[in-house]
Design goal:
Elements: H1 3-11, H2 17-68, E1 95-102, E2 107-113, E3 128-132, E4 137-140
Antiparallel strand pairs: 1-2, 2-3, 3-4
Length: 141
Amino acid sequence: MNKREVHVLKSQSGFTLMELMIVAIIMAVVAGLAIPSYLQTVERSRSREAIEQLGTIRQAQGRYFSANSKFTTTWADLDVGDPALAPAQLGKLHFGYALTTGSATDLLVTATRNTEDASAGCSKADWTVTIDEEGTVVNGC
């Protein structure tokens, strides 16, 4: 091996510490921007679970109201069961559901976030989604 070949091998031996630090900083900045967006997307999809379940419960309440001229606060009166009692193969639900108002003219069904789930940007206990007899959905903390 001559001197020229040895010099070429030495100059191609790897990355400098400065180059590695720059790459690490760029990766940290990208992660810092991407993680909050990812968490918001996860929360949005979890709230969709609640909105879909509330819509199903509202429809069942409408059928019950047509037959009885009033809303109910009892799951057994509805033709859909309590979502909390769903089969395990459906996966873990992120919300608990309650028929909080059941009078002749008022309906309010509430979905409250399960305490073991983390929620970005608000207290776990405060995360609720509600739907009324007209189908108005209120979602948030």
